[in-house]
Amino acid sequence: MQNQTFVYVTYIETSINELWDALTKSEFTKTYWSGRHIESDWKAGSPITLIMDDGKTDWYGKILQCEPPKLLSYTFQFEWLEDLRSEPASKVMYELETIGETVKLTVTHTELTEKMFNGISKGWPGILSKLKSMLERGK
C-alpha cells in the first residue's frame, strides 16, 4: 500500500536562488548526492534522472511541477537498487521559502510503500545534511 509520507524540514543560510541552483544544477548535485548527478531540463513532463559515476541510473522520474525558485516536484522510481526496483513510483516535492537570512527547505516524499519509506527515510537526512553543509560552509 502506497500511503506513507516522509517530510524533512531544514533551514539553510543561503539565498533562495543559490539553493535552487544547488537542487537543479548537475555540478552542484554531485557534491551532496555522493558523486551522482541529476539530469533534467526542468520542464513539466520531462525526465529527471540521477546518474552514477559509471553512467548507470540510480533513480529516475518525470517532472511534475517546476516553478523556480520556489517549487519543484517529480516522480521517483529506483533503478539501481534491485530490491526496490519493483516498488511503485512515488512523488518528491521541494518547497523553498525565504525567511530572513535563511531559506526554509521542505522536502516531502509521498505515496511510499513501507519498504520505500524505510529506505528513503535513511537516505534523505544524509543527502540534505550534505546539501546544507555545502551551501553554508562550502564543503
Shape label: globular
Helix and strand composition category = alpha+beta
Tally of alpha and pi helices? 4
- Summarize the helix and strand pattern as letters: EHHEEEEHEEH
Radius of gyration: 14 Å
Count the domains: 1
CATH superfamily placement: START domain
The CATH topology is Alpha-D-Glucose-1,6-Bisphosphate, Chain A, domain 4
CATH class label: Alpha Beta
Q: How many β strands by DSSP?
A: 7
Sketch the major β-sheet.
7 strands, antiparallel
CATH architecture: 2-Layer Sandwich
Major sheet strand order? 1-7-6-5-4-3-2
Name the poorly predicted regions. none
Helix and strand arrangement:
Blueprint: E1 4-12, H1 16-24, H2 26-32, E2 37-40, E3 47-51, E4 57-67, E5 71-78, H3 82-85, E6 90-99, E7 102-112, H4 114-137
Antiparallel strand pairs: 1-7, 2-3, 3-4, 4-5, 5-6, 6-7
Helix pairs in contact: 1-2
Structural overview:
- By secondary structure, this protein is of the alpha+beta class.
- It is built from 4 helices and 7 strands.
- It has a 7-stranded antiparallel β-sheet.
- Helix 1 (16-24) packs across helix 2.
- The protein is globular.
- The termini are far apart.
In short:
The chain has helices at 16-24, 26-32, 82-85, 114-137, and strands at residues 4-12, 37-40, 47-51, 57-67, 71-78, 90-99, 102-112. The protein has 139 residues and is an alpha+beta fold. A 7-stranded antiparallel β-sheet has the order 1-7-6-5-4-3-2.
List the main descriptive attributes of the protein structure presented here.
Alpha-D-Glucose-1,6-Bisphosphate, Chain A, domain 4, 4 helices, 7 strands, 32% helix, globular
